């Protein structure tokens, strides 16, 4: 089973916010997921990103692959700390 760390879209039309979730790569974008590891809100200034750092490190450690967008969010969050 290939596990991905990706965004699941929530919110209203034209007012999205995202949950950063660990999911089977075959699952739908907003469908079943294994665990929520963070949140991302691009609609506020500056953009809000938060992670459950211990759970994120665990999933990366066991081989979960982040999508390009999530990898960028993780990198930016680590640089800002």
Can you walk through the features of this model?
By secondary structure, this protein is α+β, with helices and mostly antiparallel strands. It has one domain (3-80): S16 Ribosomal Protein, Chain: A, CATH 3.30.1320.10. It is 27% helix and 41% strand. It has two helices and five strands; from the N terminus they run ββββαβα. A hairpin with a 2-residue loop joins β1 and β2. The longest helix has 13 residues, at 68-80.
Give a concise summary.
The protein is an alpha+beta fold and 81 residues long. The chain has 2 helices and 5 strands.
Write the layout of secondary structure elements.
Blueprint: E1 3-12, E2 15-24, E3 35-41, E4 48-51, H1 53-61, E5 65-66, H2 68-80
Parallel strand pairs: 1-5
Antiparallel strand pairs: 1-2, 2-3, 3-4
